[in-house]
Amino acid sequence: ELGDYPVIRKQVDQLAVVPYLVDYERETSSFTLDEARSWLDGLPGKRGLNIAYEAVDRHLAHGRGDHVAIRFVRLSGEVEEVSYAALRTRTSQFAHVLRDLGVQPGERVFSLCGRVPDLYTALLGTVRARSTFAPLFSAFGPEPVRQRIVRGDGVALVTTPALYQRKVAPVRDQMPGLRHVLLVDTTAAEAAESGIPGAVSLSEAMHAASDVFDIEPTDPEEMALLHFTSGTTGTPKGAVHVHDAVVWHHASARYALDLHPEDVYWCTADPGWVTGTSYGVVAPLTHGVTMVVDEGEFHSRRWYATLAEQGVTVWYTAPTAIRMLMKAGTELPASYDLSALRFVGSVGEPLNPEAVVWGAEALGLPIHDNWWQTETGGIMIANYLSADVRPGSMGRPLPGVHAVVLRRGEDGRAEVAEDGSVVPAEDDQVGELALRPGWPSMFRGYLHDDDRYAACFAGGYYLTGDLARRDRDGYFWFVGRADDVIKSAGHLVGPFEVESALMAHPAVAEAGVIGVPDPIMGQRILAFVALKPGFEASDATRRELLGHARRRLGPAVAPREIRISESLPKTRSGKIMRRLLRARELGLPEGDLSTLERAEEEGRHER
User: Which of 198, 200, 316, 483 is most buried (CB neighbours < 10 A)?
Assistant: First the structure.
C-alpha cells in the first residue's frame, strides 16, 4: 500500500484485448526507434514521411478505405460518419485549395473554430500540402488571436463568419501577413458580401477542387505543426513540431493508450491544444481506429450517453472532467451501458489518487494517468493497461524514453555545474524531471526565439521545469512546477501533495494551493477549494478541512488558511492556474489569460 491508496493490481489474462505492452521490462529493453518506424509505411517510393499519409492514405493502401475514420456527434445529437476514403478526398481538396490560393509549403495555416468536420479536414489537408498547421482555441479573444497569428507568420485562417467578426475583425489591421480567410459554412456569395479581406467560401472552393492530391516528397524534419503555449507574463511560445513526430504519436498511442484498429476511441480534448491534435487527430488515425468527435461541451449526462451510444472502447480525457463527473456521483454512470469501455486515460494535469480509485468504483476501470508537455509532443511517462497502477503516480517512462530526476539548486531547478553537467537525484528525492533528447516528437525550437529554446537544455538533457521524484521501483511522482513549489519554514512543499490531501475529503471537488509571503515562515500555505453540491461554504466546513489536512499532512505541510470559492480558475486543458491564484492574491500582473476556462463560456454563447 502507498499511503491510503492500495496498488491496483492487473491480470493480463483477464483483459478484453491482449495489450501491445504485456511485459514492461522486456519491451523497454528491446525497443528501438527503427522498430517504431517500421510500424508506419512512409511515403511510397521512399520519398520521406508525411503525417497525412500515415493518418489517412496508408489505410486505403491496406484495404481499409471503407472503415469509419471519424464519427462526428453534432450539437443536435445527429451523427455524421466519415470513412478513411472520404477523408482522403476531403483533405486532398483542401490541399488543392491552399495551393490554388498560393499558400506554399512551410507557410502557416491557422484554425479558429469548434470541433466541426472542417477543422479536421483543414489540419490533415494542411500537412498533406506540406504547409504548417497552427490551431487556436475557438474561445480566444482578439488579442490572443493576434499575438499568435502575428508571431506564427500566419498567411491563412480557417474560421466561421461569427468567430471572425468577434475575434479577428477588431485586430485584422494589425495582421498584415494574413492573406486568406477560409470561411466555414458560407457560400461564395456570402463570402463576397462579407467585406472580409481575402474571404473564400471553403465549401465551394473545395467542391471546385480536384479530389486527388498526391503527397510530394516530404523531409521528416519539415515543420508540420505549430503549438503555442501560454506565457506567464511574456508572449506565448510557439513550439515547432515536424512530420517525424508521427512516429512517436503512433508508438506512444500503441503503448500508453493501447489503440487497436477496431477500437472506437474518444479524446475529449479540443484540437486547439496539443493533446487534441496529437491524440485527438493524428495518433488515433494512424492506428486506423474509429474516432469519436463530440461537437458539444461538457455535460455529465451527454458524456455518459456518448460513451454508451457510440460504444467507446478507449477514452482519453482530463482530470478536470473526471472531477466534474465525480461531482455527479457513482449512480449516474450505472444508468448507462458502458460495457464496451476497456481503457480510460487522463492527461492535462496530475490525476489525484482518489480519482483513480473513483474510476475503478464508478466505471469498473482505474483511470490511467500519464505525463507529457506541449514541448515533448507526445506521451513520455504513463500507467499502462497491463501494469499495476499506483494511484497518484504518473507511471513509468515509455519504451524508448530516458527520464531522470535531477538534483536541484536553491531555486528549485536542476543544478547545473560550471562545466554544464547535471547530477541525478537519489531515489525518492525531489528534483527536476529531465529527458534525454532524441524522441521523434520532441519540439525542434520555439519559433523566432532560439535563446528561449537553448535555455531548455543542460548537461545533455531537456529540462521540463516540473519537479518530481522517482521511487525505487521506477515509478515517477509529480510534485509541482518548479515555480509553484512553496518554501515554508524550511520545508519545500509541493502544491499537488496538499491539493491531493484536500481532494480526499468528501466535500472537496477542486483544490488549488499557493504560497504567499510570510514574515516568519518565508511563505505560508494558502489553499483554495471548491465544494461538491450539497456542502455548505461555512466556517465549520473550513475548520473541518483544515483539521483534515493537518491530520493527513502534518502541521508543517498543511495549509494555514483555506478559502472556499464556487470554482477555481483553470485552463481549457484542465490545469488549475496557480499563478493566477497567486497573482490575484498578491495584486500582481495576471499575465496571459488567453487559455483561461472562462473564455469557454464566452465562446459557447458566440457559437
Answer: 316
